[in-house]
Amino acid sequence: MRKTKQFIIYAPRYNNASGGAIVLHKLCDTLNKQGLRSKLWPFGKPLPLSRLPLTSVPSAIAYLGSRIYRARYCTNEFYDTPIATASEIENSVIVYPEIINGNPLRAKRYVRWFLHKPGFHEGSFKYNKEDLCFSYQDAFNSIGDEIIYGGTLHVSEAFLDIYKLKNIEERTKICHMIRKGSTRSDLPDLRHEWVVDNRTHQELSAIFNECKICYFYDLYTAYATYAAVCGCIPVIVPVAGLTKEKWIPECNKRLGLAYGVEDIPHAIATRGLMLENLDVIAQKNNDSVERFVSVVDAYFNK
After folding, report:
1. What would you report as the CA-atom Rg of the chain, rounded to the nearest whole angstrom?
2. The domain containing residue 204 runs over which residues?
3. Whole-prediction pTM value?
4. Number of domains into which the chain is organized
């Protein structure tokens, strides 16, 4: 029997162009659909002033004052993602993404979810050694014995209503996607190439249906899978010294993807298996979340 009944997911506003935002909101929705209680806590929103240490009061007042120009906190209308109140924190397990340092909600129970390698976005991270941590995929668990590792928590949204194979004619066009690869030292000059960053899902679906190959400089973007769904070969441009096995250790998560041009035959040969996996994505989400809840139960209810 599940002992943990309520979760609060510390999440940014929903943005269907941000993989991190999508999966944080999707986790909340999946937990609720499994009969638990799960809510969101907006990024940066402070606790009530009466519950804050004096050192945090100025930043809390600044946050409250920023409501005049701050964008509205958005959720996905198709997800079950209510907003939490401060009174619910004490009886909940908080889920912090890896970019959050410390314990801003001053919760008694919390876990961390690595949606990328810790420090990738912020340059540094500050966790406690007794923190229970999960990762979106094993490749993101890069700090070893410094934390208590609870395994993978993989929740995804495939947008299969948008990304579909619509063009079966021969293709010749090539595009490039940079995204989180913008800081790579080996990033070539792409000023005269077709770079497709900052497009909507609908626009990208059309582009991927035009192109034969898309080169990805972001090693872990879900857009590579979306490209494969549309019949475009996703070629992840390798990083020197990073083998395919270290890039993504789980071979079932490399289906349909090419790690370098020499790996294109693998991408083509395994695309069908990738599509089969996507067809059962809801069940895979449920299985992963059930395992996550079981590990959390065991950790906090020893």
Report:
1. 20
2. 173-279
3. 0.81
4. 2
